[in-house]
Give the backbone structure.
Amino acid sequence: MEGSHGPCGGGNRRRFLKTAAAAGAALASTDALRGAPPATQAKAVVPTVTLGKTGQKVTKLGMGTSWALSPSFVQAALFSGVRYIDTSESYENTKAEKVIGEVLDRTGMRKDIYLVTKNSKGHATGDAAVKVYEERLDESLARLKTDYADCYYIHGISTREIDMLRDPGVKAAFEHLKKVNKIRFCGLSCHDPILPEILELAAEVGWIDQVMIKYNYRDVGKKERYDDLNRAIDKASKANIGLVAMKTQSGAEAFPADKAALEAKGIKAPAGGFQPREKAIVDLLEKGYKREVAAIKTVWMDPRMQVVVSEMTNFSDLRENVAASQEPLTTTEMRLLEQYRETTAHLYCHGCGHLCESAAKGVPVATVLRYLRYYEVYGKRQEARALYQALPPVARDLAAADLLAAESACPHGLPVVDLVRRADRQMA
Ligand code: SF4
């Protein structure tokens, strides 16, 4: 066992601890500074990067806020040097925006932060767009206690909405918001199966300044397997679109496969019990290897990806990610992460639904497995159940679906039959 960050080389490990200590000192100062204007007292330790054509210098680590945020946590992140906040009207049903607004107002740090929020529910088009987008943004700004957002996103654009990007009404709505100084830049977020097409179109239409996409170490450097995604990222990067990665930890967390992990999550182990490759995963984790830290560093190694928005939900994650932003990936981390990637490839859904869903005949496999990940890996059981139950009946009709055919079509060897049935048992 070589500590919580794995068997790094001694020098790297010492450097990491030194950096973590600096980040920890910034966190420790949170209590002392609570309520005081901190801009001059907080020591920023997160490196910055220029975010594409926005030309803005932002920290390469951003704070994801899709969870039950506390004001003290937001403040700790700001005091430890994070200067990029990603939120949405939908996170915690508007509570996330309220908490952020309270902290920015109290600390006086609004001008120090690059603040992104999102239109989640009002994806209007045509003549209605200007009014709808402005009304929803105004509500977000009121909660955030500010009069502008640095960037405003169309949140979670889906396959059926792709034409929105060519819609003159939507473009006019965003141009209007810029003109009246309520936003500085325009963007979108996406983790839909047609993400590459949406990204390419965003690069073509010209009015999108930045895009947030699902991207993790399983996607990095595997051009032979991810040609379409990498081509789209290249195109967006050449168009100088600011690229922001989210769900970088999804690549670290696979569906639990071993008996102990399943039981710890209150899930019954599969009838087959341990398989040799699951045993290999357990051995790797028992070495103390911190795969989440290596995973986030891997994304930063891709020069096209400028910011990582990480959903840090505790002080330990915050401290580790701030420290990780200072340190490149070591060769040991790279080797162990590759080993982990190989041993868990069958336990991670890559979201390439176009490969298996036509065979499944009705079940949107990638979406169902995404909700299962929310349920089992992120522990967001209530939200996952609500999303699953909102799927149309045909998407949950397992008797009519051909899950075995979908399993055969999956190039990554996912046990689609077991996982989809498990999803239905847990979330129906
Ligand atoms: S089950 Fe396999 S083919 Fe289907 S979306 Fe997931 S990884 Fe892709």
In short: The first helix runs from residue 10 to 33. The CA atoms of residues 214 and 247 lie 5 Å apart.
